[in-house]
Write a structure and sequence with these properties.
Keywords: Signal
InterPro entries: CEMIP_beta-hel_dom, Fibrocystin, Pectin_lyase_fold/virulence
Protein name: CEMIP beta-helix domain-containing protein
Largest sheet: 19 strands, parallel
CATH class: Mainly Beta
Helix content: under 10%
CATH topology: Pectate Lyase C-like
Length: 343
């Protein structure tokens, strides 16, 4: 499919599943090449249990693989490649900051995909309070829905982030709007290099990153902005926010950028307590302008409101690290070393 998609027109996409309901895994988009489009690549709208597998999207205007309203569940996006996904000023605000994979409901499977070279994001989980468009319902809350699967995805050379979870995600058992029992969302096995940030969550509950590899990203390997304690009941893997079995590399000369380049902060810690960090390896934070650990900043928040939040560490390893941490101010954060590995 070549030179398809009509700019400035909603619904005019190269491939568009429009309010088709439950497809029961009997329908698919498989083995397609979608090149040089003017309005996205594959849009899934009001559609459930569709298979999108083994496709290549290249030079795409706006979001490439696009889940639209936030009602869509149980779709499978796997073994797809998105190359050079770039900004479009001819559709919606979402296409001004596009993602190769744009997900509005977490109860979908996103596995074994790759995003290479793009203006903004590799994967964006943009979860609204309620679904939008013709799927609007006050009885559905995508921000509370349990994660389907996010596993073994790869991102490199994005203008902004490899993975962005924005603006909020508070996964709950059962996923109902009135549920208050945290059910951790395990994002598994993401590899990101040469982006502005490898991965970032913003307003979170029990979000967990497992087996992430972050290399040569500019501002941060992994950054967590806030953890809302009303949505996190315990520390650790059972019901809490967690970063576990991650490898974060400040610089790798084979990837270029010169002898002074280094990721500003390998692991950026959140405001408010509740984060546990376990079995994380931090490598090559040995240059003046970088540090293995740092503290996030929220624009517009007064400094008097920030400080002293507790982060718990265990089984942390440092390799070629001369700058373990850098702080903006005194009393900014409490780093609790559970087993001596941090200190």
């Amino acid at each position: 499919i070549y030179h398809a998609g009509q700019a400035f027109r909603l619904g005019r996409y190269p491939i568009h599943w429009h309010l088709t309901g439950d497809l029961r895994y009997e329908s698919y988009v498989r083995g397609c090449a979608i090149h040089q489009t003017f309005n996205r690549a594959v849009t899934i709208h009001g559609t459930h249990r569709l298979l999108v597998e083994g496709n290549v999207a290249y030079n795409i205007m706006g979001g490439a693989f696009f889940i639209e309203d936030g009602i869509e569940q149980d779709n499978v996006l796997q073994y797809n490649l998105a190359v050079m996904v770039r900004q479009s000023t001819s559709l919606l605000n979402d296409d001004l900051t596009p993602a190769a994979f744009w997900v509005t409901n977490p109860a979908n499977t996103v596995s074994h995909n790759a995003a290479a070279g793009g203006s903004h994001f590799g994967f964006w989980y943009r979860l609204l309070e309620h679904p939008g468009g013709p799927s609007y319902s006050r009885d559905v809350c995508p921000r509370n829905v349990q994660l389907g699967q996010f596993r073994n995805n790869t991102v490199h050379s994005q203008g902004w982030f490899g993975l962005w979870i924005f603006e909020a995600y508070h996964p709950q058992k059962g996923g109902g709007c009135n549920s208050w029992s945290p059910e951790p969302a395990r994002f598994e096995s993401l590899t990101t290099w040469n982006c502005e940030k490898g991965a970032e969550w913003v307003d979170s509950g029990a979000i967990q990153f497992h087996h992430f590899v972050m290399v040569n990203n500019e501002k941060a390997g992994i950054e967590s902005k806030t953890i809302m304690r009303s949505y996190v009941r315990e520390w650790g893997e059972a019901r809490g926010a967690l970063i576990k079995n991650a490898t974060i590399v400040g610089h790798m000369d084979a990837l270029g950028f010169g002898p002074t380049y280094c990721t500003t902060y390998g692991l950026v810690l959140p405001l408010f307590e509740g984060l546990a960090v376990s079995s994380v390896r931090l490598l090559n934070f040995d240059r003046p302008e970088c540090a293995a650990l740092g503290m996030t900043i929220l624009q517009g928040v007064r400094k008097i409101q920030v400080g002293g939040w507790n982060v718990r560490f265990s089984a942390v390893q440092f390799f070629n690290v001369t700058n373990k941490a850098s702080f903006h101010s005194e009393h900014e954060v409490v780093l609790q070393d559970l087993d001596g590995s941090l200190t």
